[in-house]
Amino acid sequence: MMSTKKLPLRIGVGAIVLNKKNQVFVGKRKDNPVDKWQMPQGGVNDGEDLTSAMKRELNEETGIENIKILNEIDGWFEYELPNYLLGKIWRGKFRGQKQKWFIVKFLGNDEEINLEKDKPEFVEWKWLDIEKLPNVIVDFKKKVYEKLLPKIRNFIN
To answer: What pLDDT score does 3 carry?
Structure first.
Protein backbone atom coordinates (compact mmCIF):
# COMPACT_ATOMS: atom_id res chain seq x y z
CA MET A 1 0.00 0.00 0.00
CA MET A 2 1.52 3.29 -1.03
CA SER A 3 1.82 6.05 1.51
CA THR A 4 -0.75 8.71 0.77
CA LYS A 5 0.52 11.31 3.19
CA LYS A 6 3.36 12.07 0.76
CA LEU A 7 0.91 12.96 -2.00
CA PRO A 8 0.05 16.67 -2.13
CA LEU A 9 -3.42 18.19 -2.10
CA ARG A 10 -4.68 19.45 -5.44
CA ILE A 11 -5.51 23.17 -5.45
CA GLY A 12 -9.11 23.64 -6.50
CA VAL A 13 -11.98 26.09 -6.66
CA GLY A 14 -15.69 25.74 -6.10
CA ALA A 15 -18.74 27.78 -7.08
CA ILE A 16 -21.80 28.15 -4.87
CA VAL A 17 -24.27 29.30 -7.53
CA LEU A 18 -27.43 30.88 -6.15
CA ASN A 19 -30.56 31.56 -8.18
CA LYS A 20 -33.06 34.33 -7.56
CA LYS A 21 -34.70 32.25 -4.81
CA ASN A 22 -31.30 31.63 -3.15
CA GLN A 23 -31.40 27.96 -4.05
CA VAL A 24 -28.07 26.43 -4.95
CA PHE A 25 -27.04 24.68 -8.19
CA VAL A 26 -26.06 21.02 -7.84
CA GLY A 27 -25.19 18.48 -10.47
CA LYS A 28 -25.24 14.69 -10.41
CA ARG A 29 -21.82 13.43 -11.40
CA LYS A 30 -21.50 11.12 -14.35
CA ASP A 31 -19.06 8.86 -12.49
CA ASN A 32 -21.26 8.62 -9.42
CA PRO A 33 -24.00 6.05 -9.94
CA VAL A 34 -25.81 6.66 -6.64
CA ASP A 35 -28.00 9.64 -5.85
CA LYS A 36 -25.18 12.03 -4.98
CA TRP A 37 -24.96 15.63 -6.11
CA GLN A 38 -22.34 18.35 -5.83
CA MET A 39 -21.69 21.99 -6.56
CA PRO A 40 -19.43 22.85 -9.51
CA GLN A 41 -15.76 22.59 -8.61
CA GLY A 42 -12.46 21.78 -10.22
CA GLY A 43 -8.73 22.22 -10.36
CA VAL A 44 -6.68 25.34 -10.90
CA ASN A 45 -4.29 25.36 -13.85
CA ASP A 46 -0.68 26.49 -13.48
CA GLY A 47 -0.50 30.27 -13.46
CA GLU A 48 -4.29 30.66 -13.36
CA ASP A 49 -5.78 32.98 -10.74
CA LEU A 50 -8.52 31.57 -8.53
CA THR A 51 -11.34 33.75 -9.84
CA SER A 52 -10.57 32.86 -13.45
CA ALA A 53 -10.32 29.18 -12.54
CA MET A 54 -13.74 29.29 -10.86
CA LYS A 55 -15.36 30.98 -13.88
CA ARG A 56 -13.72 28.52 -16.28
CA GLU A 57 -14.70 25.44 -14.25
CA LEU A 58 -18.24 26.72 -13.83
CA ASN A 59 -18.59 27.25 -17.56
CA GLU A 60 -16.96 23.91 -18.45
CA GLU A 61 -19.28 21.97 -16.16
CA THR A 62 -22.56 23.89 -16.51
CA GLY A 63 -22.40 26.35 -19.40
CA ILE A 64 -23.15 29.15 -16.91
CA GLU A 65 -21.56 32.51 -17.77
CA ASN A 66 -24.00 35.14 -16.48
CA ILE A 67 -22.87 35.51 -12.89
CA LYS A 68 -22.03 38.17 -10.37
CA ILE A 69 -19.41 37.22 -7.78
CA LEU A 70 -20.88 38.03 -4.38
CA ASN A 71 -18.17 36.73 -2.08
CA GLU A 72 -14.90 34.87 -1.97
CA ILE A 73 -15.18 32.78 1.19
CA ASP A 74 -12.32 33.29 3.65
CA GLY A 75 -9.90 30.45 4.13
CA TRP A 76 -9.41 27.13 2.40
CA PHE A 77 -11.47 23.94 2.59
CA GLU A 78 -9.76 20.56 2.43
CA TYR A 79 -10.84 16.99 1.95
CA GLU A 80 -8.96 13.72 1.66
CA LEU A 81 -9.89 11.01 -0.81
CA PRO A 82 -11.08 7.69 0.61
CA ASN A 83 -8.63 4.82 0.11
CA TYR A 84 -10.65 3.21 -2.66
CA LEU A 85 -10.20 6.31 -4.84
CA LEU A 86 -6.54 6.98 -4.09
CA GLY A 87 -4.40 6.46 -7.14
CA LYS A 88 -7.51 6.22 -9.35
CA ILE A 89 -8.40 9.85 -9.95
CA TRP A 90 -6.17 12.80 -10.92
CA ARG A 91 -3.77 10.18 -12.31
CA GLY A 92 -2.86 9.22 -8.75
CA LYS A 93 -0.98 12.47 -8.12
CA PHE A 94 -3.03 13.86 -5.23
CA ARG A 95 -4.49 12.65 -1.94
CA GLY A 96 -7.32 15.19 -1.85
CA GLN A 97 -8.17 18.81 -2.56
CA LYS A 98 -7.58 22.19 -0.98
CA GLN A 99 -10.33 24.45 -2.26
CA LYS A 100 -11.17 28.13 -2.45
CA TRP A 101 -14.95 28.65 -2.66
CA PHE A 102 -16.89 31.55 -4.18
CA ILE A 103 -20.55 32.54 -3.76
CA VAL A 104 -21.99 33.75 -7.06
CA LYS A 105 -25.43 34.92 -8.14
CA PHE A 106 -26.75 33.40 -11.36
CA LEU A 107 -28.09 36.27 -13.46
CA GLY A 108 -29.16 34.24 -16.47
CA ASN A 109 -32.14 31.95 -16.90
CA ASP A 110 -32.21 28.16 -16.74
CA GLU A 111 -31.99 27.81 -20.54
CA GLU A 112 -28.37 28.98 -20.27
CA ILE A 113 -27.46 25.86 -18.29
CA ASN A 114 -25.91 23.27 -20.57
CA LEU A 115 -24.34 20.07 -19.29
CA GLU A 116 -23.46 18.83 -22.81
CA LYS A 117 -19.96 20.25 -22.80
CA ASP A 118 -16.77 18.78 -24.32
CA LYS A 119 -16.21 16.47 -21.36
CA PRO A 120 -19.51 16.37 -19.48
CA GLU A 121 -19.15 15.82 -15.73
CA PHE A 122 -22.80 16.05 -14.75
CA VAL A 123 -25.70 13.99 -16.10
CA GLU A 124 -28.44 15.95 -14.35
CA TRP A 125 -28.81 19.20 -12.44
CA LYS A 126 -31.29 20.91 -10.12
CA TRP A 127 -31.77 23.86 -7.80
CA LEU A 128 -31.61 22.76 -4.18
CA ASP A 129 -32.50 24.31 -0.84
CA ILE A 130 -29.10 25.09 0.75
CA GLU A 131 -30.04 23.29 3.98
CA LYS A 132 -30.09 19.99 2.06
CA LEU A 133 -26.53 20.38 0.76
CA PRO A 134 -24.70 18.17 3.30
CA ASN A 135 -27.21 15.36 2.71
CA VAL A 136 -26.65 15.04 -1.02
CA ILE A 137 -22.85 15.06 -1.22
CA VAL A 138 -20.53 12.03 -1.16
CA ASP A 139 -19.36 11.22 2.37
CA PHE A 140 -15.75 12.30 1.95
CA LYS A 141 -16.78 15.84 0.94
CA LYS A 142 -19.49 16.18 3.58
CA LYS A 143 -17.35 18.07 6.14
CA VAL A 144 -16.52 20.69 3.52
CA TYR A 145 -20.22 21.20 2.78
CA GLU A 146 -21.05 21.36 6.50
CA LYS A 147 -18.43 24.11 6.91
CA LEU A 148 -19.68 26.00 3.84
CA LEU A 149 -23.33 25.95 4.93
CA PRO A 150 -23.11 28.63 7.68
CA LYS A 151 -21.06 30.83 5.33
CA ILE A 152 -23.79 30.60 2.68
CA ARG A 153 -26.51 31.07 5.28
CA ASN A 154 -24.86 34.20 6.74
CA PHE A 155 -24.51 35.57 3.29
CA ILE A 156 -28.09 35.17 2.09
CA ASN A 157 -29.86 36.09 5.33
So the answer is: 55
